[in-house]
Amino acid sequence: MRYAQGGGLTDAGRAARERVRLQAVERFEGGQKNREIAAALRVSERSVERWRRQWRERGEAGVLSRGSPGRPRLSEKQIARLERELERGPLAHGWADQRWTLARIKTLIGRLFHVSYTVEGTWLLLKRHGWSWQQPARRAIERDDAAVEAWKKETWPRVRAPRRRVTAGSSSRTKPASR
User: Fold this and answer.
1) Of the N and C termini of the chain, which has fewer Cβ atoms inside 10 Å?
2) Running DSSP on this structure, what letter comes out for residue 65?
3) Which stretches are tagged as biased composition: Polar residues (predicted)?
């Protein structure tokens, strides 16, 4: 039995791995050699050696699965606190402008809960809890929309360059189009 490098197992896959290790423990207790166990369970001898060492040091508990290393999870209570802190705004947490970025939220989670998320993980966490990505409109506070519309209708047509007429032409700068 070969295991995928880097894990990535489901709970069922982890349980299957653990069953193999427990079968190895039964064979340790039966006095079988590492090579025999590895061949019977279709695993490497190095794995069997490692399991035997863990079994000698800590007993059966040494070969049991420790669960998924998985990604960090915040409890519902922590999520509620994070939402309250986000609603307070970036200024309350030391950022001068009023924008929350994923990197800032990641930093805030680390400060509040001593948990390290990636930027992508932070986005998935927020999305899972109903937060959405928003880009603030970049408009001056002094902007007068009525004046902008008036300028577009009255001034722009007067200052806009006239369109060139469509005629036969050449893309060459040095050779004019032949007629």
Assistant:
1) C
2) -
3) 169-179
Alpha helices in the chain (DSSP H): 11-29, 34-41, 45-58, 76-88, 102-113, 119-128, 145-150, 156-159
* Residue 164 pLDDT: 72
Give Cβ neighbours of residue 93 (< 8 Å, ≥ 6 apart): 85, 104, 108, 111
Query: What is the total count of domains within the chain?
Result: 2
Tokens of 126: 């927020």
Q: Which of 1-15, 51-65, 73-87, 108-122 is predicted least confidently?
A: 1-15
- Which residue range forms the structural domain that includes residue 34? 11-62
Q: Which residue has the tokens 């509040």?
A: 112
- Residue 155 DSSP SS3: helix
